[in-house]
Task: inverse folding
């Protein structure tokens, strides 16, 4: 199953120090990475280089328009808390995977 969480505002500056090119974003995620990549590439035409292989939360970021396309293509809309709970069930507590994610991003 492919999941998308709600749109949220982008922070003023991204973690790499650059500026976001859009105002809002969300995540597309699946417990099955093969299914996630297939959906992202076949249904949304996303490049593999857009994939964020973060420890505990491998995902793609989506814009508002791409989120709508994902939902129309069959992605299930879930809340941010439910997304965290699903990732938690696979990868350990949110605190542990958020910490690993921040370490991977060096912030």
Result:
């Amino acid at each position: 199953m492919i999941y998308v969480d709600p749109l949220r505002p982008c922070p003023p500056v991204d973690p790499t120090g650059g500026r976001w090119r859009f105002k809002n974003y969300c995540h597309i995620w699946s417990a099955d990475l093969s299914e996630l990549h297939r959906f992202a590439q076949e249904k949304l035409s996303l490049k593999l280089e857009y994939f964020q292989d973060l420890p505990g939360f491998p995902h793609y970021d989506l814009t508002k328009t791409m989120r709508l396309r994902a939902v129309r293509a069959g992605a299930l809309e879930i809340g941010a808390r439910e997304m965290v709970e699903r990732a938690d069930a696979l990868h350990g507590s949110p605190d542990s995977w958020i910490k690993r994610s921040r370490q991977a991003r060096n912030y």
About this structure: The beta strands are 3-4, 8-9, 24-29, 60-62, 76-77. The mean pLDDT is 83.
